[in-house]
């Protein structure tokens, strides 16, 4: 079988676009297949009101091209979805990527042909594409989770999922709206929906921690300073566990005297953003330290929310930072509005959706539109929607029945020549996605290059390497408090999904070092032929 391409890339978000660019630079032939009508991935689909990145824009950007870094102007500290999507489109144009992207096409299956050492890829448009390598760039939070609530199909009004928002936008003016969920997407959209809608009812199963963004227009002097030596910022970020240039305080929260501890929390609170979790180094390592941060945030909720009963419902019960910390603009304040009602469904699930609303804990709620801010089948959802068949026709679904296993988050035993950018077992979802993506893509491109120079056609991790990496992912998860709650990191939000902490939490620097070491030792842990 003659391959049509060296590599078939699935997805034209930030990972797929850079993968295409990198392979072209190395003179490989590559084709991208993308389900959407445009580039941008997450930022193409998640168009809900208030959608915004909670990593600062000067850091949430590509660093592979100094020219791109210099020419692009971010307008705000945290970029909005439309601005990030404009950036993605700019990148696609600037590097002339579109001519190798097939849009409006979903990959449905891919089978490894052991005789020909290539993948046969099928799409919903009836394509059959043969490629030596398949590289998935489908994102970690890209398979929307629509909970199976009885009666959902009977609702007479429109239903919107935050992760698949209508491109023409939605105007809630004069409408009554119900929102299910209080994760990051809900926390970003609720303040804006509340301003538009006649009435908003929020159904909260688990209260979440959020810190203020303190978003603002970017100061041109600050941008000039960053751009004068962007590399300094990027290199510093690479030394931090999350790949974000936070100022980490290496003291222990519980060992710091209370007055000093509060001063530090206040300072971080006033600065805003995810760096709050770097107030002390042990917030996710020590229960007592964690409690100090949790109590600080709960006191803030009580300060802001006027009705003590509502403040009590909004106060999270679990560990701060265990579920992904949210970053907001005016979230708690929203619950002081007369047109907003908070319904606590923590002690009784929604019984059913009715034609005109929903029924929970024996009470009926009515609204014109329903917003599902119910998240994603994270990390494995998108991968398992494709019917991947490896050696011996083994389905990836079967291989991962008890939870995903990979070597370095990038490769899977039994699935030769398949690379999974930001796959389970990679640190990407716990880091700034962009530098993680670039690191993964560079590693894969260098690997293909090395194989070509040695005339090798097949790469596959060894079972013992995969086993060892799964152990490493598990061990590092067990050290932190992050693996202890029912989050999407452990698949807890999807009924029936195996409970495994999926990302590698050992930190971005340790991961980079490991990937580099594997290469230095001649692709240790891989069989190459
Ligand atoms: P999340 O963070 O997974 O939030 C989903 C929310 O939806 C969360 O509050 C869930 O409650 C709630 N949910 C899900 N299913 C139900 C049902 N059946 N009934 C009631 N409530 C439900 O998704 P987001 O889109 O907000 O954010 C995903 C990531 O994107 C985020 O972490 C950032 O990295 C960006 P639960 O907590 O499960 O009780």
UniProtKB/TrEMBL annotation:
Q: Which PANTHER family match?
A: L-ORNITHINE N(5)-MONOOXYGENASE-RELATED
Secretion signal, residue range per the UniProt entry: none
Q: Which family does it belong to?
A: Belongs to the FAD-binding monooxygenase family.
Q: What is the lineage of its organism?
A: Bacteria, Pseudomonadati, Pseudomonadota, Alphaproteobacteria, Hyphomicrobiales
**Gene3D superfamilies in the cross-refs:** FAD/NAD(P)-binding domain (3.50.50.60)
**UniProt-listed Pfam families:** Pyr_redox_3
Q: Which InterPro entries match?
A: FAD-binding_Monooxygenases, FAD/NAD-bd_sf
Q: Name one GO molecular function term.
A: monooxygenase activity
Q: Which organism is it from?
A: Enhydrobacter aerosaccus
Task: Please identify the protein, giving its name as recorded.
Answer: Cyclohexanone monooxygenase
Cofactor(s) needed for function? FAD
Q: Which UniProt keywords apply?
A: FAD, Flavoprotein, Monooxygenase, NADP, Oxidoreductase
